[in-house]
Task: structure prediction
Amino acid sequence: MKIKIKRFHPHFEPPSIDMEYAVQETATLLDALLQIKRQKDRTLTFDYMCRSGVCGSCAVRVDGKEVLACQHTPKDGEYIEPLSVVDVIRDLSVRLEDALVTLERSKAYPLDMQKIAMSEEDERRIERQSDCILCSSCFSSCPVYASNEAFLGPFALSRVWRYVADKREQAKKEHIDAVVQNGIWDCTLCGNCTEVCPQGIDPKNDIMMLQSKAVQFGYQNPNLGGFGSFGLEF
Amino acid sequence: MFDIVIVGGGGAALVAAIEAAALGKSVLVLSKHYPTQSQTSMAQGGINAALYPPDSCDSHIQDTLKAAAGLAQETIVQEVCRAAPKAIEWLDSIGMPFSRKGEAIAQRRLGGASHPRACYAQDYTGLKLLHTLYDNAVKLGVAFRFRTFLLNVIEEDGVCKGVSILDMARGKVEQILAKAVILATGGYAKMYGALSTNGFGSFGEGVAAAMRAGAKLSDLEFVQFHPTALKKSSILISEAARGAGARLIDQEGQEIGGELWTRDRLSRAIFEAMEEGREIFLDMRHLGEEFIEKNLPQERKLALLYEGIDPIKEPLPIRPVAHYTMGGIDVDEHMQSSIQGLYAVGECANAKLHGANRLGGNSLLELVVLGKKAAQSAAQRQQPPQKKLFERTKIDANFIKAVFTLPNQIDFWERQEFLSKIMYHNCGIVREEMRLKGVLSVVRQHQKELAFMGVRDKSPLMNKELISFLEYGNMVELAEAVLVGAIQRTESRGAHFRADYPQRDDEKFLAHTMIWKEKGVLCADFKPV
Ligand SMILES: Cc1cc2nc3c(=O)[nH]c(=O)nc-3n(C[C@H](O)[C@H](O)[C@H](O)COP(=O)(O)OP(=O)(O)OC[C@H]3O[C@@H](n4cnc5c(N)ncnc54)[C@H](O)[C@@H]3O)c2cc1C
Ligand code: SF4
Ligand code: SF4
Result:
């Protein structure tokens, strides 16, 4: 079986080339990458840790689609690239700082948690969102970054919804206030993020939930404002 | 300069960082991965606390002491078990999404526990704990530096001054000074390589670095083997499965029994059955699809991917593999090591909570309770180190340069795989003097040969081969200490089982194995409990 990998090293000329490697069949792409590194090419650079899909370090793109290397079974002819949107350090290893900073900017953390009993159902409401492993797959898949680097992005917004939907959290308005700029209204609802999430999280839906919460707090969808000014009603 | 530098980004590190920030201290967290990529994310089973009768803190204490087989310190066990309900309350108050039963936090029963005592979040307990802590650390504005690899602890006259690190993305060696350093770098069970549940990260550099700086280590030979890992991939099938009624059977369908025994006992029983040529399986078919999907979805997914087996339809082939290291950097009741200003917490430390055998669910608890304590102790230190370029840093910078010029005649990766295998078979579940000594001589040979190894990748930038080589170097250094401990302890206790000395011997060995280095030479002794 052969796989092709996009290599990158900023000091080389050209910095980026595609290289093809023959590998024995493996259960996972991570195993194939480790096989190449140990047996063929020590310079191949990629990240990994838990090999069980929970640490979120091995996300790459296979034929253009984000996957976790440790959860993907490689097939002949596949093309492996690093995540997009984030900066590549070397080969498949990327800088996640720019993605992680969206958590800070969107206040994707508890603001005012109170001691309130939660039922099984209350807990289930935030169960999926809190399965997030911060692999940045969704971030990489999001088309908004092509035009707006300041976009808060899918995993941060999903996490904000996780706190807004948390029964214990009281400062719901403050959460919404933090995501109206470069946030919920900038999402095109394309659903890419939902499609690639290895944890079955649905950031697109969470963003829609945040939008309706924002409307409850008196915010208006600025994209709809345009119609209003023409006096059109649907 | 920071008040406190924390090395590590797992649960122990983040709890310490949150507490230090809450105490108004300036704190920097350094880790070789991004924090949420730490091994804490892999914990599934749960975190122990006696929340509701008939369970009680006393029962929790008793169970912990019993498993510890005489090597736990009773005061620490009491302190941690009594603080457990508050720890759960604290986690709940900062957003931890524990699973519920009705309106109460749900609990399940893990091996060695008299009651269902482990609070959990589906089978993502560690993941959700780690992310909750990370969110809170972000909220508090904790400073992080990711992908910084600890090289050494900087020590002068018995006092810790800071650490030397390798900035992985740039390939530069730096020193980071602080009034206090907390090591929270995790355990060393990945020393057993493919025969370990651990992720590719737990090689024990923090423990080895502490030893190089002169700190005492203790009880290193106590390595816990988890009885049920998937046979091909060593992926853990959590005790929660057995707690819910999964059964152990052999290829003929014969029951093995002992599903709720402590890990040491059950691992040995399975290991011995396997030595007799039997194959062992974990059968959870009778638990039903609904139950498995609700409680063990991760395990099912991984069994399908790695073994091609659906636990709903077929029993899972398993074997016992290295899982947790009870020993580590020896710390006092303030989590301070034998070096002043150097603290350690979490799996890299030996706070004497687990003794000779850890109970499932007690480790996450330790991170929370003792992580806070480590920060409180470290916050007491007032004396900033002198601002100068320490000798240690210069040596380390030269060392990293030199690694690139090593001859590469021997492949360290092959050596590492070999060492892991012989560690499992000879310094694993069942041990014996001649075999331990055999491995020790191999380790010493490997140490001598390090100068003939090296890296083929010569780029300074994000050189992961270099990182793997450094991990291996630390592993070889630490393996020697583990082996010396295992050889010296001529008795069987908890996770340490000697075929040639199968009895527990309290007269001689109701004591901690102490190991340290003096001028590069390994020294060992026993310290009575
Ligand atoms: C599969 C599995 C399941 C488990 N399930 C449970 C359970 O259900 N309940 C329970 O109580 N316990 C469980 N445990 C044990 C528990 O998860 C660990 O003991 C605990 O998470 C250790 O946390 P820690 O913070 O000490 O270290 P870790 O989470 O291992 O973190 C170590 C940190 O140190 C950093 N680091 C390491 N070396 C260096 C270096 N050289 N330089 C810089 N940084 C470094 C790493 O990047 C990482 O951030 C489980 C363990 C495993 C492997
Ligand atoms: S749905 Fe929104 S957040 Fe998700 S990828 Fe599309 S534009 Fe980005
Ligand atoms: S939402 Fe899904 S894809 Fe996005 S970071 Fe989290 S786990 Fe990864």
About this structure: The longest helix of chain A spans residues 203-216. Chain A has two domains: 2-95, 97-224. The mean pLDDT of chain A is 95.
